[in-house]
Design goal:
The chain is 31% helix and 19% strand. The longest helix is centred in the first third of the chain and has 17 residues, at 2-18. The protein is globular. It contains nine helices and 13 strands. The strands form four sheets. The protein has a six-stranded antiparallel β-sheet, with helices on both faces. The protein has a three-stranded antiparallel β-sheet with strand order 5-9-6. With 338 residues, the protein is α+β, with helices and mostly antiparallel strands. It has one domain (2-336): 3-Layer(aba) Sandwich (Beta-lactamase).
C-alpha cells in the first residue's frame, strides 16, 4: 500500500506543478502496472462555459494516436491474406505518382517521401469540408515528393490517410466501421469512436486554445481531413483496454504484433526507431513504445514500457497543455518506484 501512496503522491505533486491552473482546461492521466490500474487522476475543467470539472472517464480526441489503430487494421488485413506489406501503393490506387515504388511498409514507417498534407498551404481551403478518402488522397498525391521511398524518415500524416483509404478499398468497409467492429468491439472499448462535432457524445471533454486574452473554443475541422491519421476519440480507460488487447494478442497474432514494435531501417541501413504506429524510444535507459497526438483543442500521449508492463496515458483538452513530457516523467517515476 505504501508503494501506491508514495507513487500517487509524487505524481500528484508533478501534475499540480505542471498544470497549476485548475480553473482552466485540464487533463486526465492514468498509470497501469502489470495489468492493473495503479493511478488515475483528472485535473482542470472538461467544459469552461458550464464550469464542469474534468473526470477520469471523459472522452478526448486522441489525434495521431489514431495511427496505432490504422497500423493494426493493416496488419489484420495482412493476416487475412488481403494485402501484403511489400505491396506497392499502385496495386490499390492505380496511377498514384511513384506508386510502384512506394510500399505499404513505407507508409507505415513514415519513409515514403510523400508530401505531408499538414504542411501544405492550401490545407485551409479544405479544413472544414467533408472530404471522401479518395478526395483527401487526390488533395496531396500530385505534390512533389520530399525524397525517394526508403531514403529518409519524415513523420507523415498523408501516408496514414493513404493507409486508411487502402483499408476501405481492401475490406469493402468504411474505416470507421472497420475500426469499430474489428478493434473497439473486440477490445471492449465502449467509449471510443470516430470523432464528430455533431453527435451528442456522453462525457465529452470540450477542446480549447489559449490566447493572450484567455481561452477560446477550439477551431472547427472536418474529421474527414485527418481521417485515419488522426480522427479517433477515446478515454484513458479505453486506451488501457487497447494496450491490454495488444499485450494479450487479442487483435493480432504474436508474429504480427511483433511487427508493430520492430525498429525498421532506411535503405542505407540507418535505424528509424519507429515501428508501425509507435516510436521506439527509452525512459531512463529502459525501452519504451510511445506515441502522441495533437489536433485542434486536444493533445495526447501514451507510453508503454514492456519490460515492466507499465502503461501511462495522458489526455488533455487544450493544445496549451502538452502531456508528452509529463507522461514520460510519470513513466519515469513509476519505473523508479520499482
Amino acid at each position: 500500500m505504501l508503494y501506491g501512496q508514495t507513487l500517487s503522491h509524487r505524481i500528484d505533486s508533478l501534475l499540480y506543478l505542471r498544470i497549476p491552473d485548475t480553473t482552466g482546461p485540464g487533463a486526465v492521466f492514468m498509470v497501469a502496472k502489470k495489468g492493473k490500474i495503479v493511478y488515475r487522476k483528472a485535473v482542470g475543467k472538461a467544459n469552461l462555459e458550464l464550469d464542469v470539472n474534468m473526470q477520469t472517464g471523459n472522452v478526448f480526441q486522441i489525434g495521431s494516436m489514431t495511427k496505432q489503430f490504422t497500423a493494426v487494421a493493416i496488419l489484420m488485413l495482412e493476416e487475412q491474406g488481403k494485402l501484403q506489406l511489400t505491396d506497392p501503393v499502385s496495386k490499390y490506387v492505380p496511377g498514384y505518382p511513384a506508386g510502384d515504388k512506394i510500399t505499404i511498409h513505407h507508409l507505415l514507417t513514415h519513409t515514403s517521401g510523400i508530401k505531408d498534407f499538414t504542411a501544405m498551404k492550401s490545407l485551409s481551403s479544405i479544413a472544414q469540408k467533408e472530404m471522401s478518402p479518395e478526395a483527401m488522397v487526390n488533395f496531396f498525391k500530385d505534390e512533389p515528393a520530399d525524397f525517394s521511398p526508403g531514403e529518409r524518415f519524415s513523420y507523415n500524416n498523408s501516408g496514414y490517410v493513404l493507409l486508411g483509404y487502402i483499408i476501405e478499398l481492401v475490406s469493402g468497409n468504411t474505416y470507421e466501421n472497420f475500426i469499430q467492429h474489428n478493434i473497439f468491439d473486440k477490445a471492449g472499448m465502449k467509449n471510443s469512436g470516430y470523432a464528430s462535432d455533431r453527435k451528442v457524445i456522453r462525457n465529452r471533454a470540450y477542446g480549447y486554445h489559449k490566447k493572450e486574452h484567455g481561452y477560446v473554443n477550439k477551431n472547427i475541422i472536418s474529421f474527414s481531413v485527418p481521417f485515419s491519421s488522426g480522427a479517433l476519440m477515446s478515454t484513458a480507460n479505453d486506451m488501457f483496454l487497447w494496450q491490454t488487447a495488444l499485450n494479450k494478442n487479442l487483435l493480432l497474432n504474436a508474429n504480427s504484433t511483433q511487427k508493430l514494435f520492430t525498429s525498421y531501417t532506411l535503405a542505407g541501413g540507418k535505424p528509424v526507431y519507429y515501428g508501425y504506429g509507435w516510436h521506439l524510444r527509452d525512459i531512463n535507459g529502459t525501452a519504451s513504445r510511445e506515441h502522441g497526438g495533437s489536433v485542434f483543442g486536444f493533445k495526447s500521449m501514451g507510453v508503454y514500457i514492456p519490460e515492466k508492463d507499465i502503461y501511462v496515458i495522458g489526455l488533455s483538452n487544450c493544445d496549451c497543455i502538452s502531456p508528452t513530457e509529463l507522461t514520460r516523467e510519470i513513466a519515469g517515476l513509476t519505473l523508479k518506484a520499482e
